[in-house]
Design a protein that fits this description.
heterodimer, A: 189 residues, mainly alpha, 10 helices, 71% helix, 0% strand, B: 118 residues, three-stranded antiparallel sheet
C-alpha cells in the first residue's frame, strides 16, 4: 500500500473511532492513564498494520481487537491468569439453565435502577475477570453480536455465550449487593 | 419426485453446542423451537430427519414453519428475558456514559503515527 493511500485510508476509516476505542479501553482498564496510553498504542499499531485491514469492513471491530490484544498483553504482564477454552466449554455445558437476569428483574421491580449506580457499575465491572469484562462491554455497551465478538476476539461462539452469561450474572449479583448496602434495597432472590 | 412428511416436534432438547459434524442450521436449541409444527420436504425419496438429512447436496430438507403452537410459558419467559436484557443494556449505557477524552489525545495519536511514518 502506498504511503498516500495508507494515510488516506487511515484518516477516512480508522481515526474517527479514537473516542470509541478510548472509552472501550477506559472501561476495560478502569484507569484513565492506561486508556490514554493504550489508545495511542492501538492507533500506532493499527497504522503499522493497515495493510491487514480490508477497506469498508468493520473498522471498529478491527480496532477493538487490536486494543483488546494490547490490553491483554498489559494484563499478562501483571500476571493475571486467563481461563482456557476447554474450561469455558465445560463451564458452558454446566451452566445453569436460567437466563441469569432474574436478579436484575428484582432490582428493576424494587425501583433500584432509577438511582445513580455509575460508581457501583464501574466498581462491579472492574471486579469482573478481564475475559468476562470484555465480552460484556462489547455485547451490552457497544451492541456487538455474539458472532461479531467471537470473530473479533478469535473465540469460540460458545465461549462468548458462556462468558457473557457469567459476566451478566456476576455483575447483577454485585449490583444487588450494592443496592442492599447503599440503599437498603432488598430483592426477592 | 418430491416426498413430504409431517413431523410434530413436542420439545427438542440439545445442549446448545453446534457440533461440527452437523450444520448449525439443523441444530435446534432447547426452548427455541418447542411445540412447533414443521413440514419437512426432501427429494430423491430420502426420508426427512428431525435433525436434517444432509447426506447429499440434493436432498437437504427445507424446514418450513406452517403453524406455531407456542408454549405460553416459554413465550412469557422468552419475552421477559428479552425485556430484562434490553433494560440491562439501557442501564449499563446510562451508568457507563460515554467519556470525552482529553482534547490532546488526537494530537498525541498523530504524533505517534508521524514518528512511524518518517
Amino acid at each position: 500500500m502506498e504511503r498516500n493511500e495508507r494515510n488516506r485510508l487511515f484518516e477516512l476509516e480508522i481515526i474517527d473511532h479514537y473516542k470509541a476505542v478510548y472509552n472501550f479501553l477506559l472501561r476495560l482498564s478502569g484507569n484513565e492513564t492506561d486508556a490514554v496510553d493504550l489508545t495511542q498504542e492501538a492507533f500506532a499499531r493499527a497504522f503499522a498494520k493497515l495493510h491487514l485491514y480490508e477497506p469498508g469492513t468493520n473498522a471498529r471491530a478491527w480496532l477493538f481487537r487490536i486494543a483488546h490484544n494490547l490490553f491483554i498483553n498489559k494484563v499478562r504482564k501483571d500476571n493475571r491468569r486467563q481461563e482456557d477454552e476447554l474450561d469455558e466449554i465445560t463451564a458452558y455445558q454446566r451452566r445453569d439453565t436460567s437466563h441469569g437476569l432474574g436478579g436484575f428483574q428484582d432490582l428493576r421491580q424494587a425501583g433500584a435502577l432509577d438511582r445513580d449506580f455509575s460508581d457501583e457499575v464501574n466498581l462491579a465491572l472492574n471486579r469482573l475477570p478481564e475475559d468476562q469484562r470484555v465480552v460484556l462491554l462489547m455485547a451490552d455497551l457497544y451492541d456487538f453480536s455474539e458472532k461479531e465478538i467471537a470473530e473479533t476476539l478469535k473465540l469460540n461462539l460458545n465461549t462468548v455465550k458462556s462468558r457473557t452469561h457469567r459476566a451478566r450474572k456476576k455483575l447483577i449479583e454485585m449490583l444487588r449487593l450494592f443496592a442492599r448496602q447503599e440503599y437498603g434495597i432488598h430483592s426477592m432472590r | 419426485m418430491h416426498v413430504k412428511s409431517t413431523v410434530f416436534i413436542l420439545c427438542v432438547e440439545t445442549n446448545g453446542i453446534n457440533h461440527k459434524s452437523r450444520p448449525a442450521r439443523y441444530v435446534w436449541r432447547g426452548g427455541l423451537v418447542s411445540q412447533y409444527l414443521f413440514v419437512m420436504s426432501s427429494k430423491n425419496f430420502s426420508p426427512a430427519q428431525p435433525l436434517g438429512n444432509n447426506s447429499g447436496r440434493n436432498c437437504r430438507p427445507q424446514v418450513e414453519v406452517i403453524d406455531q403452537n407456542v408454549d405460553p410459558e416459554f413465550t412469557q419467559n422468552h419475552h421477559q428475558q428479552t425485556e430484562d436484557l434490553t433494560a440491562l443494556k439501557v442501564f449499563l449505557k446510562k451508568n457507563l456514559a460515554f467519556k470525552r477524552p482529553n482534547p490532546d489525545l488526537l494530537t498525541k495519536i498523530h504524533e505517534r503515527i508521524d514518528k512511524l511514518d518518517t
